[in-house]
Amino acid sequence: MPIWTESDRRIVLKAKRDHPRWSWDAIAKLVQDDIHSGSACQQMWKRHAKDRPPPTPLGLAERRAIAKMRESDPPTPWEDVAEKVQFSVKICQVFYKYHVTDKEIERGRQEAQSTAIRQAKAEAKAAEAKAAKEMEEAKKRSSVVLSYPVVKSKGPTKITAASRAYQRWTDDEEKQLLKHVHEFTAATVAKNLKKKKQQQQDNTDWEEIGKKLKRSEGACEAKYKQLTLKYKKNEIRG
């Protein structure tokens, strides 16, 4: 075993004091002719260092876990680090200040970056799946066709006023509606004039008109009021 000279001893002690995170192999290379191994430098330092911190009880797995968590972006809080490795906050902090090496720091940084990348990809994939699911549900909702009751009979299917309550009015139906209303109105006016009444009454037979158009009474009356208002507006604009 090579003999330690005072000069070699000072080089190792000073290097460890100034650069506590350097690995022992890197410190060993500072000694002339590289005659001492990293392990030998570490053993010498333990015997002669006056400001040597207390030894760490952490094993390799805990050391690597702490380095990874503290090199994350942002760094994991010390309380969470201590809970993860099952050691006190003080022990973890002493290790990270005096015992962790640059090699362990670099390894922890790379592992933290790899974990962050995997997590980002997983989150992006989950967001994409969620968006696809929402789009599929929206398509299903938009494809729903509303159905209305149709009166069943032994013969051919009969279209009733109820089954057409929500169907769109055609131009021909609107014309027929106005025609029937005008016919009943004209008959009512003639009857009132015959009786010498000064005030005209609305005796439109909506039930009869609904039967002719195969629509409900309420639908016919409401549509007629809508058309009357529409024509009045057009006259005012004209």
Count of separate structural domains: 2
Please compute the radius of gyration using only Cα atoms: 47 Å
Total number of beta strands: 0
Mean pLDDT over the residues: 81
Helix share bin: 55-70%
Contiguous helical run count: 10
Please outline the major beta sheet. none
- How would you spell out the order of helices and strands? HHHHHHHHHH
**Measured distance between first and last alpha carbons:** 116 Å
Structural class: mainly alpha
Strand content: under 5%
The coarse overall form would be rod-shaped
Low-pLDDT residue spans? none
What does this structure look like?
There is one protein chain. With 238 residues, the chain is an all-alpha fold. The chain has two domains: 6-110, no CATH class; 171-237, no CATH class. Helices cover 64% and strands 0% of the residues. α8 (171-194) crosses α10. The chain is rod-shaped, with a radius of gyration of 47 Å. The model has no long low-confidence stretch (mean pLDDT 81).
